[in-house]
């Protein structure tokens, strides 16, 4: 977790999947902001509040909270930890600042975001499997050559340790392109000194060798190759000899950084140092020799392993970069799409809105809510099943923003051959006699997909007011025809056609904003009528 919003959740014992948090937070139309933070917490079902309090009440605040600094501090949001008489806060770069409470009060504008601590038992198991697999892999590749030969060698162990350290450094070289997360350790190492900047070196035009070989991928490919080769064929003589042959590449890298690019890459220098360390180990070992014979088979194995490693990492690197770019573009698109003003602007007026209030629709939500969604369904329409399920999902949302969801039917009941007419009559009868059961009846049909005979046995009851029910159903059908709704599901929101560019699932992310927009519209309309 790398944002202060995510880190606060972890401190409060919430273990939210990172991608789930990012999808909601990064796609919020007001990202980044206090509103985006509180709305994301609400979407995740976490009790929270954004408050302005008197600064004297700081002792009453919990140990962890998010605070907003004064305009002099650019109004930044920071994660605050109360520790005795001191305050430790960190910004989105996760750089910590420790100061007295009095000093903090001067920088704080009094606005906080508070979240309830998670009291449910929860364990963060998301990283256990990768760590277990990695540990198993390292133990296997280290022990395999000793088990195969039945002897122990300090030189071999040194080569293995250098290969492991080099693989880690090689990962740091390419990490920034593989993740949108901030790694403070990596950034700190990369920016040691005025002339040290990894990205300047790695992204330069000199970072590609003939044959389109990327310098970025060489460190991790080289050291992983050594690690695998030593596990397959513990011939560290060949690894040491090849490290000597790699010295020209080390010198070329140093020349580029010092003379051409005029900047230094710390991880590149560490890689060069490890290659020189490999050379030193080899020169000091008792197996020192410039002769490759009789290791031609081992050489071919090494070359094959090296080429395969590079190709694999190149594929991973390219696909991960593309996925990350696509993900970031999707966040921008979602922020644009999840703007309630844009949504409202894409709705279109109905052809004939008259008579809508008299359709005797089935009410499932809060009838007084400012956001009003209506679905016109058909009992045997597969898309209607999905639409109803999405509507129920909106009603069951974690943030409990009120919404009115009404259900009508776009079916010609004069067609006596339509077996769905009995289903619709049963729906209306249930709603008129036992309205508290209508949600279960609709769910049993549209979501559980209960077989028709089984459903009828459970839900069909004698109908006393059949004429009124038939009148209501026919009236709903006629109204749909007047508005050219020759399909199901037909969707209406606040007296307008639901935009085709959106799905019902989008409403979950728009609901907070729509609630505010439609509430303001009602207030403005009432003010106009009053004047």
Task: Give the SSE map.
Blueprint: H1 4-11, H2 18-26, H3 34-43, E1 48-52, E2 64-69, E3 77-83, E4 86-90, E5 96-100, H4 101-107, E6 108-115, H5 128-149, H6 154-178, H7 184-190, H8 198-202, E7 208-209, E8 213-214, H9 218-232, H10 236-245, H11 247-261, H12 266-284, H13 296-337, H14 340-346, E9 348-349, E10 362-363, E11 372-377, H15 382-395, E12 404-409, H16 420-433, H17 438-446, H18 452-459, H19 466-482, E13 490-493, E14 496-497, H20 507-530
Parallel strand pairs: 11-12
Antiparallel strand pairs: 1-6, 2-3, 2-6, 3-4, 4-5, 7-8, 9-14, 10-12, 11-13, 13-14
Helix pairs in contact: 2-3, 5-9, 6-9, 6-12, 9-13, 10-12, 11-12, 14-20, 15-17, 16-19
């Amino acid at each position: 977790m790398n944002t202060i919003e995510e880190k606060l959740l972890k401190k409060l014992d919430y273990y939210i999947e990172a991608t789930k948090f990012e999808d909601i937070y990064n796609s919020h139309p007001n990202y980044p902001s206090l509103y985006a933070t509180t709305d994301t917490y609400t979407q995740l079902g976490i009790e929270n509040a954004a408050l302005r309090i008197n600064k004297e009440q700081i002792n009453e605040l919990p140990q962890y909270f998010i605070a907003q600094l004064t305009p002099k501090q650019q109004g930044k949001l920071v994660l605050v930890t109360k520790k005795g008489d001191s305050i430790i806060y960190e910004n989105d770069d996760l750089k910590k600042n420790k100061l007295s409470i009095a000093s903090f009060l001067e920088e704080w504008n009094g606005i906080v975001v508070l979240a309830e601590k998670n009291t449910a038992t929860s364990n963060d198991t998301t990283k256990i499997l990768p760590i277990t697999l990695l540990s198993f892999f390292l133990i296997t590749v280290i022990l395999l050559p000793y088990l195969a030969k039945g002897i122990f060698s300090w030189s071999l162990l040194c080569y293995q340790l250098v290969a492991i350290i080099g693989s880690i450094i090689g990962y740091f070289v390419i990490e920034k392109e593989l993740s949108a997360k901030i790694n403070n350790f990596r950034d700190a190492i990369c920016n040691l000194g005025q002339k040290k900047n990894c990205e300047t070196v790695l992204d330069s035009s000199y970072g590609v060798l003939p044959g389109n070989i990327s310098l970025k991928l060489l460190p991790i490919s080289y050291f992983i190759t050594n690690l695998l080769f030593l596990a397959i064929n513990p011939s560290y003589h060949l690894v040491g000899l090849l490290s000597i042959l790699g010295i020209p590449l080390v010198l070329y890298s140093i020349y580029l950084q010092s003379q051409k690019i005029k900047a230094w890459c710390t991880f590149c220098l560490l890689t060069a140092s490890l290659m020189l360390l490999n050379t030193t180990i080899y020169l000091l070992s008792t197996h020192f020799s410039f002769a490759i014979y009789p290791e031609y088979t081992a050489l071919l194995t090494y070359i094959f392993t090296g080429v395969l490693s590079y190709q694999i990492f190149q594929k991973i690197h390219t696909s991960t970069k593309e996925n990350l770019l696509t993900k970031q573009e999707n966040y921008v698109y979602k922020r644009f799409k999840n703007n309630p003003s844009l949504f409202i602007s894409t709705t279109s007026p109905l052809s004939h809105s008259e008579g809508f209030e008299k359709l005797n629709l089935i009410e499932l939500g809060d009838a007084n809510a400012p956001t009003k969604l209506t679905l016109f369904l058909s009992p045997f329409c597969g898309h209607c099943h999905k639409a109803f399920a999405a509507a129920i999902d909106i009603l069951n949302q974690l943030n409990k923003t009120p919404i009115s969801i009404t259900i009508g039917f776009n079916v010609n009941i004069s067609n006596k051959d339509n077996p769905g007419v009995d289903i619709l009559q049963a729906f209306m009868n249930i709603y008129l006699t036992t309205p508290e059961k209508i949600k279960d009846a609709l769910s049993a049909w549209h979501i559980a997909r209960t077989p028709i005979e089984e459903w009828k046995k459970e839900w069909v009851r004698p109908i006393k007011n059949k004429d009124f029910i038939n009148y209501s159903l026919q009236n709903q059908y006629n109204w749909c025809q007047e508005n050219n709704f020759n399909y199901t599901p037909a969707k209406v929101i606040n007296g307008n056609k639901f935009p085709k560019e959106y799905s019902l699932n989008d409403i979950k992310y728009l609901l907070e904003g729509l609630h505010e927009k439609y509430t303001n519209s009602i207030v403005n309309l009432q003010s106009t009528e009053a004047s």
